[in-house]
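Hello,

I think I submitted the NAP job twice by accident. Can you confirm which output corresponds to this input? Input:
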Amino acid sequence: MARALITGITGQDGLYLSELLLAKGYEVYGLVRGQNNPKIDLVRRTVPGVKLLTGDLTDMSSLLRALHDARPDEVYNLGAISFVAYSWENAQVTTDVTGKGVLNMLEAVRLYSGDDVTRVRFYQASSSEMFGKVQEVPQRESTLLWPRSPYGVAKVFGHYMTINYRESYGMHASSGILFNHESPRRGPEFVTRKVSQAVARISLGLQDTLTLGNLDARRDWGFAGDYVEAMWRMLQQDTADDYVVATGETHSIRELLDVAFARVGIDDWSGYVSQDPRFMRPAEVELLIGDPAKARATLGWTPRVDFTELVQMMVDHDLAEQRALAR
Ligand code: NAP
Ligand code: G4F
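Support: Only one job matched these inputs. Its output is below.
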């Protein structure tokens, strides 16, 4: 039975990935942090088969302990402070967790592996946020990185460290440059879920308006359940490498609003949505659109859920959830 250790198990991707690996017969271990983390209950309810270990990406001895307990064949490093807007307010802690945390995990895996450097296969959750002020359209693996946020800078550090450990030590370390991926499990601080929750509440008469920031930014949005499949496929390759994972389509926040409001029968959302500088960023990533050709050709990966289906899935989920909460 293959064994996997996942950091960031309490997050959106951690839940989908653990479901995927459990279904494939893996023994799955998840790293959880904090002395009373409320999301641990969610993990226990959603994926009861996962074995939980305590640790923190900023604490290398806890990572080594987790590796010795889990004895994994594969490590998926999904843990991060992942909210871009927050990263300006807390740049140092974002750097420590999202950037230096990757080095801690790589070094822990290297020390744990001893002479057998390829004993553990390593996946790093890199991000399209690294492209920032994009230097090429669409963005591919070779596109110059130009991060626009402390989060993006920290991800660039983790990305290059992963490549460096592969090139320096021969580790089987791959980096997935994933474009935005969403689901009903997305945190409510991210724009898709903020919109789907608000649209559900507005249609049920529980909320009057929705306040957002920049409506013109464009993202390449896919479904998280599809994207964790690409992570797994990367670690099944004989050779480690880096891959862009994206749909190849881009949509603005306005288009997101069109589809979400249309789902509840509202064609003109202008009276419900306002803008507030509070939600604008000091430096915006205006356009993301990925070229997933390499993932398609080498991994045989293609997304199954398109943009409209994704937004409708999220609105439908939030309608059901808000109805249940209102009861
Ligand atoms: P998420 O829902 O925000 O989950 C982040 C996870 O990181 C949580 O489980 C969190 O645990 C954990 N974490 C935070 N600080 C930690 C620390 N100090 N030590 C250990 N774990 C820590 O993020 P996601 O959407 O699932 O994304 C997964 C990964 O992919 C992240 O690295 C993210 O940056 C990256 N990524 C995401 C996207 C996307 O569109 N979703 C795109 C590209 C890359 P707590 O419960 O303890 O807070
Ligand atoms: O949903 P967002 O907060 O996601 P963002 O910044 O693109 O980051 C996500 O995707 C990255 C991959 O590219 C991940 F690495 C990262 O961890 C995270 O998962 O914002 C999307 C867009 C931005 O342009 C933002 O300015 O939506 C715009 N936006 C407009 N109003 C808003 C809002 N974003 C949020 N969160 N809240 C608003 O009110």
